[in-house]
Write a structure and sequence with these properties.
This protein has 212 residues and is an alpha+beta fold. It has two domains: 3-69, Uridine Diphospho-n-acetylenolpyruvylglucosamine Reductase, domain 2 (2-Layer Sandwich), CATH 3.30.43; 74-185, Uridine Diphospho-n-acetylenolpyruvylglucosamine Reductase, domain 3. The protein has four helices and eleven strands, in the order E-E-H-E-E-E-E-H-H-E-E-E-E-E-H. The mean pLDDT is 93. This is UDP-N-acetylenolpyruvoylglucosamine reductase.
Length: 212
Amino acid sequence: MIREYHNYSLLPHNTFGIDVTASRFIEYDTPNELYELISSSRIEEPYLHIGQGSNLLFVKDFEGTMLHSRIKSIDITDETTDSVGVRVGAGVRWDDFVLWCVENNWYGIENLSYIPGETGACAVQNIGAYGTEIKDFISNVETINFAGKKQTYSVEECKYAYRYSIFKELDRKDCFVTYVYFKLSKTPHYVLDYGTVREAVAKYPEVSLKIV
């Protein structure tokens, strides 16, 4: 369902806790709803698409349209004895997805726990921590642009580098991420040789996903 609010407080949508407002705030639950918003010209400029607001510092009210994805689905796309493919909605809180993987004993992104943000924004930013980057586990990223064109980018086409992706380039600024596809391992493999990680986990009798 599409939800539209006026003079909406952005306090829940920025990690600095700044109480400013957006003149229009629109949330959507599916890519089709986003396409409907675009095709019906309901997104008035200036506009800004936000996730959890962990990289935003508001200093005044936003006089424009603010968009927020609530695409919350997590679906298994393929599975073998060694690996699993997962499609994650852009609006899923990143740490919720990490916890879901840990609970399913799927390896790869456990070092990226406790990073604030939503999955779509994390794929744009190429988040990283403790020797792990999200790009190493992404297979594809699905988007819709401001013209309503749907496009799937392979991980190579995303041009990932340190805290960088193609979606930060000016000609891709109007791309809205809808889904991120991941490939995770079922085989235990931990990245412990960064900083004091190995020293920290050595305090426990054995290494596990939850400990890491």
